[in-house]
Structures are given as C-alpha cells and as structure tokens.
Amino acid sequence: MARLSRGAAWARLLAAPGGGRGVRGLSASAPRATVMAAWVIDSYGPNEVLRFTENAPFPAIRYPNEVIVKVLSAGLNPIDLSMRGGYGAATLRMRRDPLNVNRSGGEFPLILGRDVSGVVMECGLSVTCFRPGDKVWAAVPPWKQGSLAEFVVLSGNEVSLKPGSLSHPEAAAVPYVASTAWSTLVNSAGLNKDNCSKKRVLIIGASGGVGTFAIQMVKAWGGHVTAVCSQNAEGLVRGLGADHVVDYATGAVDIKLKTLDKFDLILDSVGGDTERWAPGLLKPWAGARYITLVTPFLRNTDALGVADGMMQSALTIATKALKHFSKGVHYRWGFFAPSGPALDEVREMVDAGQSLGIVRCLYCPFSDGPAFISDKVGCGMWGLRVGLRPDAWGNPGSLAGRCLAALINGRGRCHRKYK
What we know:
- By secondary structure, this protein is of the alpha/beta class.
- The protein folds into 2 domains: 35-174 and 357-417, Medium-chain alcohol dehydrogenases, catalytic domain (Quinone Oxidoreductase, Chain A, domain 1), CATH 3.90.180.10; 177-333, NAD(P)-binding Rossmann-like Domain (Rossmann fold), CATH 3.40.50.720.
- Helices cover 30% and strands 22% of the residues.
- It contains 14 helices and 17 strands.
- The chain has helices spanning 6-15, 21-24, 78-84, 89-96, 168-171, 175-188, 209-220, 234-240, 253-258, 274-277, 297-304, 306-325, 340-351, 369-376, and strands spanning 35-41, 50-57, 66-75, 115-123, 135-139, 151-155, 159-161, 200-204, 224-229, 244-247, 265-268, 289-292, 330-333, 360-365, 386-388, 403-408, 416-417.
- The strands form 4 sheets. It has a 6-stranded parallel sheet. Strands 6-3-4-5-7 form a 5-stranded antiparallel sheet. The chain has a 4-stranded mixed sheet with strand order 15-16-14-17.
- Helix 10 links the parallel strand 11 and strand 12 (289-292).
- The termini are far apart.
- Mean pLDDT is 81; it is low at 1-30, 358-367 and 377-419.
- It comes from Scleropages formosus.
- GO terms for molecular function: nucleotide binding; oxidoreductase activity.
- Its main location: mitochondrion.
- Pfam families: ADH_N (PF08240), ADH_zinc_N (PF00107).
C-alpha cells in the first residue's frame, strides 16, 4: 500500500468520523484565523506603552488539559497596572520560561487582564468538565497572556462554570479578587465552611476587592467579622455582612480594637504600620493567625534577581514567623492562586444569594481605554472591571464602535454612559 503524504494523511484524518479527535479531542471545524485583536504592551513603562493590535497571535492548545475561551468580558485589577510597569517581571519571566530558553523580553507582546468571563471555544483531549459553548469564568494567572483580547487559553482546572445569576460583565468583576480571598482564607489561614463557625475574624482594608469578598466568605461560613475601613465604606461592608466596623480615619485604630475580644484570624490587605500592632490582637497560643497580603516577594526578586530575591524573602518570612510564634501566634503571607474549584464554591455562593454581585457600569470609547484604565484602576475601594461587549471586536478598523465597560466592584446602583 502506498504511503500517504503528510498532507493527504491529515486530510483523511479530518474526513474520518470524529476527525481530529486524536489531536485535541475536537471534531473537525472550519479553518479559523491565526491572529486576533488585543491590547498589548511591547515593553514595560507608563500607560503609553499600551497599544491596540488586530494581529496578536491566536492562542493555541499545547497541553491536553487546556481550553480556549472566547472573551465576552474581561477584568482589570491594580496588579495589571503594576505589571505594565514591570512589577514582578523577573519571577513571572521565570515562571513562563523556567529553562530560560527565550531571550530577555520574550514575554512581549504581553496582554494584560486577570479576569475573564466568556464561552468555551475549544477543549483539550483530557478536558472532561467543559465542552464548547459552556459559559465560564476564570482568573488568569499573571504569568499567562491576559484577557484583554478576543481569546485566552487556560488550564481546565483554572476555569469554572459562570454563575447563572450574573451577566458576563458582572462575572468579570469577580474571579481574581475572589480567588485571592479564597486562597488566603483557605490555604494560608486554614479556614473553610466546616471549621469557621463562630471564629472571630478581623479584616483590615475591608472595603477593597479582596476584603469585600473575604467578608462574604467568612459570613457564609458562619464566622464573626470585624471590618476596618473608612466611614464612607461603612454602609458597604455592613451590607456585605460585617458585624462590627471600625473607622480608621478617626485614628487610634489599634486602641479601639484592643477594647474588643481577641481574634482567631487577622487578614491584612493594608500592611505598613499595621503589622507592628495587629498581631497583638490575636488569641495567644490558640492557633490564631495573622495573614498579610502585602509581601516583599516580587519586589525582592525584581531588585535582587530570582535566586537572591527568593532567599531574602525566605529569610524575611522565617524571621517574622519565629518572632510571632514566640508570642503564641502564627504569621503567614497570603497570595493569589488560580483555582477552578474555588470559583465553583464562589459560584454556589453567588447563585444562592450569599455573595453580593456587582455594581455599576461606566462606559468609555474603546479607543480611550488606556487613559481610562490609568485614571480608574486602583482608585480606593473601587476596583475597575473592563468588560468587552460581545460585539466589541466585530468591526475591524473601527475603534470608535468598540467600548470598554468598567464594572466597579461595590454596591452602586446607577449606570452612567460616557460618550
């Protein structure tokens, strides 16, 4: 029998029933473009490094557990602004290229955006939890290409089915901060729905993105929450379930908190001077933990290199852990961790009404996106969410017809359109 050429063999494979399944576990489909539209950066720097392109490389499934998601809404977080300026570049570069095969700067063009809500387009061979057409949401790890694009590729265990009670723009306001809150409470603090009942939890920076979701999770698990925030945010955090609120703007926060009963857990998203006095509010020799989200890890690796930076960070946390352990409390760092199962739990909370949804939408022309992003992301207790409308990419060459929808995480009620 004559041996088929590679092209003929490929054609026969696609023509066979279930053609192409040996490659990605997909049925044969019509050829698609190899490029897509995206906001990218070609170097680290100020907002001017952002540029729009319609020729960004189309993501490809390289591992059998990956899925390609068509982006319907995307979210930005303060870390995106930091990454635009080069924050964490050394560590993230090593995570993307552990063998250092690519030259320096091989991460460019880099796509930002840590939140995504959309529809599964393709699935790898080993993906069994999703199928094309599923509505999903996910937090995109910082070492991967982000969601400010038409499509994004993710591991199947980083993806979760979207809550049915949220629209895509609403859903795009949740995954990154919710995953960070869940990782901090579960992985660092050891809390979960089975052991949190009646635990006293102090959340410093309670009106921020992570703080607002931490309040809701602890309350859903039966815990007691004391929140530290500004007076302007008191209504927000009480509405989320906080049992007691302390206004930091009036000063002497540590003195006010010392009049309360001791805590089982402190979640600190502010850092700075709070680390000096906050651990003293914990129950001594009772397994209580102080968890801070403000860590020097990425700053150390940026300044000292990956190896020396990791050693310096290890020395720092070991020193602080020993210092606080001698006083009967545990000291930990909290980090973001991508997790589909965590988002599964958040989805159940949202659909059960235990987690408040999103807030108000602000609109600006898509072509004005970078300036709007620079002005709005990281503005106090509100976190910017940039939503790409389903038709946002539908008219190549016509930027005026595209929009960025900024979803602000909180409890606003108005929807205002900016021309």
